[in-house]
Design goal:
Layout (H helix, E strand, L loop, with lengths): L4 E4 L5 H12 L3 E6 L2 H9 L5 E5 L5 H15 L4 E4 L4 E3 L7 H29 L2 E6 L12 H21 L4 E8 L11 E3 L11 H11 L7 H13 L6 E4 L1 H20 L1 H5 L5
Parallel strand pairs: 1-2, 1-4, 2-3, 4-6, 5-8, 6-7, 7-9
Helix pairs in contact: 1-7, 3-4, 4-5
Length: 277
């Protein structure tokens, strides 16, 4: 189970950084991505054993393609791909411009999709590999003020769930990690906000925006413990499709499941009555 090669996007801070450090301690090899050359140089100059930093922009297709080819050329394989890089965003749906929506979807959906598509041919050749998609409890349950971020993670979960069925016969595993609030920079400087603010949404999206700022640095989740849970998932013989992390995630995902079940039962007869008899 040792000596795997992990490619982890976005290791400059938060969960990505904690995961990279934990994997290195497990003696596996980490290739971590940064967005700035100065970060790459600082990391590589630190001579960390079992690790290498690369400059990669997940919103740039050529950057992805060139880096993956180089990794395969140098290391021969990628055992675990962790699509961690992404951004947070708050704002009511009406408050958010299409330009802002695209800014969220480029890394959270399109960049992650491109990373996945580019690595898959090499995993198919090896008939082995594990893709870890870092989603959110917000990829299952939507919240007022979080709709665009929710949409990007719902989309991520949608293609990942289908892909898991497509690649399972090929020896490739897919897992979707759904963290609740974790003590990272997500709710701090790393959080985007809609430029427009509409008074009518003060008591919905506005409340959510305020709460996110208030909990920054006080979240329940420990990134180090989350990292160990992800490593255990990768090392398990039969990893689950989904891995919720944190008490809040368990609660909110449970609420969503209860809500869907309630709607299903309420409308069961209506649903049955619209089919040809």
């Amino acid at each position: 189970m040792k000596n795997k090669i992990w490619l982890i996007t976005g290791i400059s801070s938060g969960l990505g950084k904690a995961l990279a450090e934990s994997v290195i301690k497990e003696s596996d090899f980490v290739i971590g991505t940064f967005r700035h050359q100065s970060q790459v140089d600082e990391f590589n100059n630190s001579n960390i054993k079992n690790a290498q930093a690369i400059l990669l922009d997940i919103t740039n297709e050529k950057s992805i393609e060139n880096n993956i080819k180089k990794i395969i050329s140098e290391h021969g394989k990628i055992d675990v791909l962790v699509n961690n890089a992404g951004i947070g965003f708050v704002g009511a749906v009406e408050e958010t411009s299409l330009k802002e929506v695209r800014t969220v979807f480029e890394p959270n959906f399109f960049g992650t999709l491109k990373m996945t598509q580019t690595v898959l041919p090499f995993m198919r050749k090896e008939k082995n590999g594990h893709i870890i998609q870092i989603s959110s409890h917000g990829g299952i349950k939507a919240f007022a003020g979080f709709g665009i971020y929710n949409a990007s993670k719902f989309a991520l979960e949608g293609f990942s769930e289908a892909m898991a069925q497509e690649v399972a016969p090929l020896g490739i595993k897919v897992s979707i990690v759904e963290p609740g609030p974790f003590r990272t920079n997500f709710a701090g400087n790393g959080l985007g906000q809609a430029e427009s603010m509409i008074d009518d949404y003060t008591d919905t999206a506005g409340v959510f925006r305020t709460k996110l700022k208030e909990v920054d640095g006080k979240q329940e989740g420990d990134p180090v413990k989350a990292s160990k849970a992800i490593i255990n998932l990768v090392n398990s013989e039969n990893p689950t499709l989904r891995l919720p992390l944190g008490k809040v995630a368990l609660m909110t995902i449970g609420m969503k499941l209860d809500s869907v079940k309630s709607d299903l039962e309420t409308n069961r007869k209506t649903a049955q009555n619209v089919v040809y008899m």
